[in-house]
Amino acid sequence: xxxxxxxxxxxxxxxxxxxxxxxxxxxxxxxxxxxxxxxxxxxxxxxxxxxxxxxxxxxxxxxxxxxxxxxxxxxxxxxxxxxxxxxxxxxxxxxxxxxxxxxxxxxxxxxxxxxxxxxxxxxxxxxxxxxxxxxxxxxxxxxxxxxxxxxxxxxxxxxxxxxxxxxxxxxxxxxxxxxxxxxxxxxxxxxxxxxxxxxxxxxxxxxxxxxxxxxxxxxxxxxxxxxxxxxxxxxxxxxxxxxxxxxxxxxxxxxxxxxxxxxxxxxxxxxxxxxxxxxxxxxxxxxxxxxxxxxxxxxxxxxxxxxxxxxxxxxxxxxxxxxxxxxxxxxxxxxxxxxxxxxxxxxxxxxxxxxxxxxxxxxxxxxxxxxxxxxxxxxxxxxxxxxxxxxxxxxxxxxxxxxxxxxxxxxxxxxxxxxxxxxxxxxxxxxxxxxxxxxxxxxxxxxxxxxxxxxxxxxxxxxxxxxxxxxxxxxxxxxxxxxxxxxxxxxxxxxxxxxxxxxxxxxxxxxxxxxxxxxxxxxxxxxxxxxxxxxxxxxxxxxxxxxxxxxxxxxxx
Length: 557
Description:
Elements: H1 2-11, E1 17-22, H2 38-49, E2 53-58, H3 66-80, E3 84-89, H4 95-107, E4 113-118, H5 119-123, H6 125-131, E5 137-139, H7 144-155, E6 166-170, E7 173-176, H8 197-203, E8 211-212, E9 215-217, H9 227-232, E10 239-241, H10 244-257, E11 263-266, H11 278-291, E12 297-302, H12 309-318, E13 320-328, H13 332-337, H14 344-356, E14 360-365, H15 374-385, H16 392-396, H17 406-413, E15 417-418, E16 425-426, H18 431-443, H19 445-470, H20 474-511, H21 517-544
Parallel strand pairs: 1-2, 1-3, 3-4, 4-5, 8-11, 11-12, 12-13, 13-14
Antiparallel strand pairs: 5-6, 6-7, 9-10, 15-16
């Protein structure tokens, strides 16, 4: 064995191997993982820059089951013998399958150092160590520098237990080290490793996205969100942008390596940045796009109160054709509760501005919360369905408890939290809200297929329209715009249909203290019938506009 190890090290020029992985959720969804994990990609590129051989294994992106992921990871662990295996956790739904995988590796005699990182491990490290004593360490907060120091310590057989940002369990006692400073200059980081980019585009040509981060953090402080706390506790700025030239250089690099690339999705929580310099940053980005002759479609996320006519005009000229806005609620009372710092009027104004500049809008909102009344939810349905936007996923969204946030602390102090991490939930102040969630959650699955098909069609229209615009094909552009108007009409019809179904669910809950299995079965049958009607409308549109039946590959994207 010693001879084998020496040969392996010599083959790899004495470099050590690290495996970084993302284990899939157990839940099956219409909405597949369709973009590589930038967490894994940044960690990998930073380690490679510092001499490590890194194998990225994104089992979630590969569409593997948990068991398949475990078996493949075991093969990697035994064949590569990495000094560290790192697990990224995107949200709490990844915790249980990841813990099961760690236990599986240990049972199969994998001796690599096993570490974990992400928002949930950062704030729930104590619970995770109790659930999984087989885990060696948790890296809290920003991961690049702490992971490198951990790998260096293990490689050089040094004590890693005093490293900043690390937590670990020692003789049943959980230790927590203080965090180091945030990376002040994000431009010092190498571009993320794009090991999976071509893979995902080839596997899912209709839904694949190429993510890019132009900044980290958030300058606001919504009560339900852990992002601000994640970057506030370590020393540094809560929002850190990359230099515009550095961002553009990465896009140029992507275009050179993927000539058929047509869209980039910025995953920044706030694309424009703070109020004082947002228009300057956007204008600088536009100037660099022009200098480098970049013509690429962009999708971004931003706040409703950041969206002005000036900003939207620059966005359109940049190539922005989709903006995701977190609207959260149709209740000003709840918006204040969330510390969202926007109003219902802000929501409407933002959507109207984007519509004027022919930029599509996607929305997210939290339909079920511990503080919602049944009337709040009914108002959500009326308000968001009136916007003529695909809001189906939002109807099923339930507030998630993120420890470290003000609202989570409030729920705990009021003893509304039930269950244990990561499967805890809460008791709503209006018990009918919980009954309604159970009814909708068990019945609305057929409508998720509708949401998925609408999302696909909308994206195809967006890509075709943008392509005709940059090629100055005016006649084709006008034709596609007419098809888009028809699509918006059927979207409105479908949203009204689904809103009506949801309202029937509300009336069932309002009129019954107990929902019988017969009533639930009748409601499910009604939803299935309405979903079939909606699918027929979508099929009618596809037959009317056959160009939208083509995949992105077929239209040479």
